[in-house]
């Protein structure tokens, strides 16, 4: 017997918005629905093949990346943000991108890809800050083996050490964070098995973290559990060369009191902040600012 040459992850590549990027993982969730009436009776225990029809194409994938400045400059506009005077501000416009996922045997090509949800994660571990994109594509096609891809610029990744977190200009020690934005995009199919329209949904943006529950800093809970006007919340990440600042100018605390879990961990206060906007004067619910370290 002759062994088969396998396609292994070392040769896998991805291209997003026209550039090839390093990535950690791709989870392909694409499927095609089957149309059938499971209530129909034909006098047999097994379903008949003639009772099937092709349903909707649901082309979805999740990709995990280690964000860098060039990558963010390329992808933030596809995640619901617009660059205005050096700041990527939350926006209501919709913009798709092209994507290619190279699995070795063939590459899967997507002409219209929408980022429905995005997540940033970091914590006290050896893993870098990560960015996860939950993508929905209109159509999936076979791009053939080893298609040409334009390389994205390589740059420095971000570790968790050096991260700073502030609420109303007061700093708090944190051991982890998650920023999650669910855009809740609306996808329409009409008389088609592929997506025929995309619309805005009600966006929800959260920043969750954890801080030691100390007498000197306990006011972040007591002063905000019933406070409705919103606080200015900042999370700043640095790699020693550039900083990424995530800002919620009017964040509302979703209060949850501290837990006592075991005798080997400090008592910690979970903090989950939700982005709000103000009508008059109008403001952005959240933003990213990328800047060089002074």
Overall spatial form: globular
Whole-number radius of gyration? 23 Å
Q: How do the SSEs run, as a string of H and E?
A: EEEEEHEEEEEEEEEEEEHEEEE
Helix count, DSSP H or I runs of 4 or more residues: 2
CA(first)-CA(last) distance: 63 Å
Give start-end ranges of low-pLDDT stretches.
none
Oligomer: single chain
Query: What structural class should be given to the helix and strand makeup?
Result: mainly beta
Largest sheet: 19 strands, antiparallel
Description:
The protein is mainly β and 294 residues long. The chain has one domain. The protein is 4% helix and 46% strand. It has helices at 69-75, 219-222; strands at residues 13-16, 19-21, 25-28, 31-35, 53-65, 81-84, 87-90, 97-102, 107-123, 130-137, 141-144, 164-167, 170-172, 176-182, 186-188, 197-199, 204-212, 231-238, 242-253, 268-275, 287-292. The strands form 2 sheets. It has a 19-stranded antiparallel beta sheet that branches. A two-stranded antiparallel sheet has the order 15-16. Strand 8 and strand 9 form a beta hairpin. The chain is globular and about 70 Å long.
């Amino acid at each position: 017997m002759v062994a088969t040459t396998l396609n292994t992850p070392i040769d896998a590549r991805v291209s997003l918005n026209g550039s090839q990027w390093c990535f950690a993982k791709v989870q392909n969730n694409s499927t095609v629905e089957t149309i059938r009436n499971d209530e129909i009776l034909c006098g047999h225990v097994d379903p008949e093949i003639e009772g099937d029809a092709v349903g909707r194409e649901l082309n979805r994938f999740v990709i995990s990346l280690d964000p860098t400045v060039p990558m963010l400059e390329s992808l933030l506009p596809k995640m619901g943000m617009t660059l205005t005077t050096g700041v990527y501000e939350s926006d209501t416009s919709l913009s798709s991108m092209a994507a290619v996922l190279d699995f070795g045997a063939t590459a899967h090509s997507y002409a219209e890809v929408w980022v429905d949800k995005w997540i940033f994660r970091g914590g006290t571990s050896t893993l870098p800050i990560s960015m996860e994109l939950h993508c929905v594509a209109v159509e999936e096609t076979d791009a053939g083996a080893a298609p040409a891809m334009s390389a994205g610029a390589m740059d420095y990744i971000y570790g968790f050490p050096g991260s700073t977190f502030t609420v109303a200009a007061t700093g708090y020690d944190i051991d982890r964070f998650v920023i999650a934005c669910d855009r809740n995009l609306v996808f329409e199919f009409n008389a088609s098995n592929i997506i025929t329209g995309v619309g805005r949904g009600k966006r929800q943006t959260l920043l969750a973290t954890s801080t030691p529950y100390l007498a000197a800093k306990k006011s972040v809970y007591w002063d905000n559990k019933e406070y409705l006007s919103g606080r200015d919340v900042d999370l700043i990440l640095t790699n020693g060369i550039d900083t990424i600042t995530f800002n919620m100018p009017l964040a509302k605390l979703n209060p949850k009191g501290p837990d006592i879990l075991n005798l080997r961990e400090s008592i910690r206060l979970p903090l989950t902040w939700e982005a709000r906007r103000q009508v008059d004067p109008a403001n952005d619910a959240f933003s990213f600012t990328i800047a060089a370290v002074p």
